[in-house]
Sequence to fold (440 residues):
Amino acid sequence: KCLDTVLFCRYNKVEILRNREENTMIYYVSANGKDTNDGLSENSAFRSISKVNETVRPGDEIRFHRGDAFYGKVITPRGKDESETTVYTAYGEGELPIISAFKIPKKGVWEKHAENIYKLDVTDVSRYDGNIYDKGFDANVGFIRVSGKIYPHKRFAYEDLAEQWDFYNDKSTLYVYSEKDPSELSDEICLACRLDCLTLGDYIRVTNLCFRGIGAHGINGCGHHVQIDHCEFREIGGSELTGYRRPNIRYGNGVQFLSNCHDCVVEDCKFSDIYDVATTMQGSQLVIPWENMFFRRNIMWNNQQCFEIWDRGELPNTGFVNCYFENNICIDSGYCWSYAVRPNKDCSSHLLIYELELPLCDITVRNNVFVHARVATVYKSGGPEKIPKDYKIYDNLIIRPTGQKVVWKDRSSDEASDAYEEMLRQNNMVVERDNYESHY
Fold:
């Protein structure tokens, strides 16, 4: 019976894969392509993400040309099983294809608004290159990159503009403090506006792509059977989280899985310069468990945090089940460009745990290397005594400055904090090292 079962499963998987190969359409996308092409060969490639979104169906494969940049939001379909796994990947030689939200102002488009204040109508697509495709433009800029350097000082009142590259926006217009016309100061000015560059569906694989220059999230959404591998996530976040209960909150994550995701993998990726966290599972109103979620063999550096969880739900047997953060390298958390402008600096940590109101929290953090967090390796709102017993941290290498706590105390008592600290020391290798500078 066991042999019959194995043969039956193998046969069915072969049939699923065969069906996928028979039904798959492969589309090519190139900066030199045209959206009037059929996209079915390298010589007849599409040009834009918008055309991809119009064309793709579950089970198709989209190949972006290496060395090119593409602007806008990738909207993925929802497949029904493995035979409808939609793949987003690269072709050609060179650097990874870039998926970006950058709006790139053209020369001479800045208008002088007042002394040392220049403005740009972000809703007027004739004034910039880059992301001219997405509808519903607004001026909610997360950061400005000038000649390769990030300037994060978003002001929430026009009157607060005071230093070079300070910026403020209303719904349609960006105002920048500058001693000269910005076009005279740099040939490369990029505006990271609010956008998620890929929204998740079901049965999706994303591989060998770079997500860079985004005011919101790199990849975001709810889906299942998702694989993200060999991708890069760089320069992400900083836009205002409008509609939040507290004003002037900014946000932006590398990969964000919302409530009710399951069977997802993020592996062999690189994350850097992200306003908030590299990878996160978060949301509210959980209906089914976060089950079989794996984050492994990733390299994360110069982000505010690396791995975050929070969620709410009261249904029995819901929460986190069989979730792993393992074999990752996490460096310099809290030393991101966002540190200088964020209000909550005490959560500058590798592992971040916010509110948890769930029956289950079966998460394992093991075999990772955690190096040089700004405040602590672990941050839990309320303190370590609030960390669920089934959130397990063991067999990791933790390198920290002499005297720095492994876990942030917050509102916990000294006794509870010391007890949790001692448990982490027993279950992990904790090394003290002063004058550490990695700058990975």
Notes: Confidence is low (pLDDT under 50) at residues 5-11, 13-19. The CA atoms of residues 15 and 161 lie 62 Å apart. The two ends are 53 Å apart (CA to CA). The chain has four helices and 39 strands.
